[in-house]
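Q: My labmate handed me this sequence with no annotations at all. I'd like to see what the chain might look like in three dimensions before we decide whether it's worth expressing. Could you predict it?
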Amino acid sequence: MKNKRLRNKRLKRKKLSEMHNQIIRYSVVFLLFAALTALYATLFFLSDIPTAYTGLPNVSSEEKSFSQGEIYSISIDPEEPSVLDDIIINIDVRNTADELNEYVLNIFISKDGQVKDENYFTFRLYSNKKVLLSPTFTPPGVGKYKIVVKLYDKYKSVLYDTKVLEITVISDIGPFDLSLDILSRTVRPNDEIPLIISMKNIGVKGTDVHIVLSIDCLEQEDIYKEFFVFLKGGGEVDKFSTITACNEDGSHDITAKLILSDHTFAYSLTQAIVSRTYYDFDVELQKSIKIKQGESRVFDVYIKNTVETTLNNLRLGVENIPLEWTTITPSVISSIKPNETAMFLVNISIPEDASIIEYPTTVDIGSDEVLVQKDFTLEVISGRFSAKEEITSDSILYPLTFKIVAAFILISIGLIVFQRLRLMRNKSKKLSGK
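A: Here is what I predict for the chain of 434 residues:
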């Protein structure tokens, strides 16, 4: 009996343990089911939140179908555009309708409210297809630009989409400074007006620039002169030039423009008075001068005021030779009264690599009231060595070899003579000893 009771107790405990395990398993399953139900309810609730709560536009499928197309993306290449370099504008357009559509794409590019460029594209797209359009634009200057892209239906009656991209254009060349100076404010008709053009490249990249000079005439066509010059990064260049005066009396504007890729980067203005009533003064200077390569010479220019009025702001310039060859002292003589004399000193320094030629030049002496021009000839002659007397290794080696051989021969002769004298002396001692 006792064993039977024990067996029943064990069976009862076993059944209770199994029932307990089943309760735990069912509880876990219930909790998992409840959690999934709560998650589903949360997601369902969030999907019904109105647009005002999410902050996102609630566009229905019917509205998307009505839009008929969209500008998918817009970008530029390169990402950091430079002035005067082409920019590629990449525009992706997609047909969001369920049918073939025709579109018009309008592109505006503006700077400071002014439209700098405008383009139109017409094209067709099948449903859910995309197209990449890549127009180019060359920014004429630095600063901020806005690229506005609009997508229309083929009649431009319905606007489907608009995108705006703002870019900043920088410059790896320039900016530039330009100044124009005139030696004489008063000139005769058809005179060559002497000018000094000062150019400066403030940027770090060197480039060739186009300089255009012009003088405004009233009764004849305007007169132009142009040339090209290389401006290294951070460099300055002064150039002496002339432009022909109008064949008409009066005040005329003279302008200088610094142009790069058909765009004006710098501008300078001065004025000249053309008058047939004209003063004159005496100028004394030598007719010609010869200077060797690599050397410099100074010559003087005497000016005597032979008119009955004071001459103001006298300056001197030398045409047809590089401006950097000349140093003029003083740069300006403020005034010369009647019968007074003044003097300029002109120092001309010739580079060692200058061409051996004759330069027919003109010395311009100008004041506010008058311009006098005198012919002058500069002849550059050979320096220490001519072209046929270049210093080479052979020209140095041959004389040196000759000198070494001659020295060796002389030393050898000296040793032979010394040895001969020594033998004769020893022979003399032996004879005297006997």
